[in-house]
């Protein structure tokens, strides 16, 4: 996690940001960030904190999940679409290399780390990628090449998001177990829905697009809960992505009301799911599935277009 020392909303690069109407209370933001950190640690995870040295002019660097995707000691770095965030790459690359990670990344195609890429399946055998809003589908082949290991390859599925509110996968998809996930189907196009529901062996690296600008990262509409189980908001994806997702995993849909509270943008630690306060129906769904919802008020970070998962980059599984 990266401290929100310089976090503020001073421009608008997603539908949730409105500097004039929703300025950030920076004292409250720091309190909420510390509350999230405590909740994650209480659930059993270990937090490494990155100090935002040099980030005085990078107010979104607090959203650490967007920095990279990690597999073992390999880190595939983000290439941010928005010019306001491009310089974050330098600082995250420096931090990851200092902590023993081998770094890769394309400068040709946009990619926004765990914001649009989530590991699912046994032993990270599948990588689900949200494309359309912030991540270019052409990044998939390079991701597969750079992140494979001698001991294990993996399959990649690209999902098109179609609702601008759910611009990252993390906002509309949340894996719960090996074969179960919560999702908001309307965040995906029909092809993405189709492909996500298919078995991976039947689906090569197919672009499953995000189509709602509210859900501009995969993390905003897709949350892996376990190896083949996830939460999602289907309408953030195009119809093909919706179909494929449901073939790939057990997908648990969430309502639009909870999706816009960033219910899919959750941190999962074992059976503990840490999500933004107010997504009560999703909390009941999680309990029914055997998970323990832990609500944290992250209202100040919603103003920037992110929630729990967006604030935490997963280093090890």
UniProtKB/TrEMBL annotation:
Signal peptide: none annotated. Gene3D superfamilies: L-arginine/glycine Amidinotransferase, Chain A (3.75.10.10). SUPFAM superfamilies: Pentein. GO terms for molecular function: arginine deiminase activity. One of its GO terms (biological process) is L-arginine deiminase pathway. Pfam families: DDAH_eukar. It comes from the Eukaryota. PANTHER family: ARGININE DEIMINASE. This is Amidinotransferase. The lineage of its organism: Eukaryota, Metazoa, Ecdysozoa, Nematoda, Chromadorea.
